[in-house]
């Protein structure tokens, strides 16, 4: 079944109109780095908090630095207030989006806090090295090392190493999908994966890319710019750790929820990956949000359907964990 686009909410249309006029697409790596800084600063403003949302009530946020791969990465931790006083909790490792070039754990803090509130889980959102300064495979290497670190330090985090799920949106969905495959191969039993408008194929073009070539937030042109900057000198490699849909086998993966947006050039990535997983015998559910745009689960202030989607994700994870 396709995800049929539905009319955008008035505030979503207004956001898209303003975004096109104040945020031109970066032309190269230097402009991408500059855009990263501007976006990070915007999140801290009053307007940014209205767009990106604030923490769910009754959820605490803490920051911790972790040494992996010879460097230091941050983890943003969300859990219900007072949750450390009880039994060990399930863990959700959440990878932020941003085309492997932009973003930070704070970008998905609204969703992470919603999931922590609705599931009671410890939600751990790590940073990872970004392109173009750190091209592929730096990001996926950090993501996999971080997942292993969380499993090894689960009790210290107040979590249960036997009840871990991965989650990610856009480029983070790519990293979550790759980590799920690597976990399977390493004998790590994940309870679930939640892939939110994931990018699963680096080169092949699907119909939604043409249909929504000029969509809000992510255009077809910018989508391919992200891929080239991420892959760097290895652009053209058909490695499944860059394109998880190309893995030799998808059998044995955990129960999966894939979330796709109606107005998104990446829509068909999620739909195609769902088909591949089902053929491999994986339990898959797909949520289709017709009025959604790319990145909408980081934009609850301008995309009303984000709240319902977050509740759906929470319900799926409650059952899985």
Describe this structure in words.
- The structure is a single chain.
- The protein has 321 residues and is an alpha/beta fold.
- The chain has a single domain, classed as Alpha/Beta hydrolase fold, catalytic domain (Rossmann fold).
- The protein contains ten helices and eight strands.
- Strands 1-2-4-3-5-6-7-8 form an eight-stranded mixed sheet, sandwiched between helices.
- The chain is globular, with a radius of gyration of 18 Å.
- The mean pLDDT is 95.
Give a short summary of the structure:
38% of the residues lie in helices and 21% in strands. The protein is an alpha/beta fold and 321 residues long. The protein has a single domain, classed as Alpha/Beta hydrolase fold, catalytic domain (Rossmann fold, 3-Layer(aba) Sandwich).
């Amino acid at each position: 079944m396709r995800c049929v686009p539905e009319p955008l909410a008035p505030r979503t249309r207004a956001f898209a109109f303003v975004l096109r006029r104040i945020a031109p697409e970066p032309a190269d790596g230097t402009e991408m780095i500059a855009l990263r800084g501007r976006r990070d600063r915007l999140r801290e403003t009053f307007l940014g908090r209205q767009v990106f949302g604030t923490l769910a009530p009754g959820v605490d946020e803490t920051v911790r630095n972790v040494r992996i791969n010879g460097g230091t990465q941050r983890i943003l931790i969300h859990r219900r207030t007072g949750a450390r006083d009880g039994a060990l909790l399930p863990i959700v490792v959440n990878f932020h989006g941003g085309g492997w070039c932009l973003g930070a754990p704070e970008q998905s803090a609204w969703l992470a806090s919603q999931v922590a509130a609705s599931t009671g889980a410890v939600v751990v959102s790590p940073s990872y090295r970004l392109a173009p300064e750190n091209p592929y495979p730096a990001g996926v290497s950090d993501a996999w090392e971080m997942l292993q670190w969380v499993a090894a330090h689960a009790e210290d985090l107040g979590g249960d190493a036997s009840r871990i799920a991965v989650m990610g949106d856009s480029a983070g969905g790519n990293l979550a999908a790759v980590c799920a495959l690597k976990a399977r191969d390493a004998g790590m039993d994940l309870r679930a994966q939640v892939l939110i408008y994931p990018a699963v194929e680096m080169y092949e073009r699907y119909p939604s890319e043409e249909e929504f070539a000029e969509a809000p937030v992510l255009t077809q042109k910018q989508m391919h710019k992200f891929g080239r900057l991420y892959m760097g000198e290895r652009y053209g490699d058909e490695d499944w750790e860059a394109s998880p849909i190309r893995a030799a086998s998808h059998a044995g993966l955990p129960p999966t929820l894939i979330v796709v947006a109606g107005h998104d050039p990446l829509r068909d990535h999620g739909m195609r990956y769902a088909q591949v997983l089902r053929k491999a015998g994986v339990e898959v559910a797909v949520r289709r949000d017709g009025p959604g745009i790319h990145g909408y689960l980081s934009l609850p202030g301008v995309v009303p359907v984000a709240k319902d989607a977050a509740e759906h994700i929470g319900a799926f994870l409650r059952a899985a964990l």
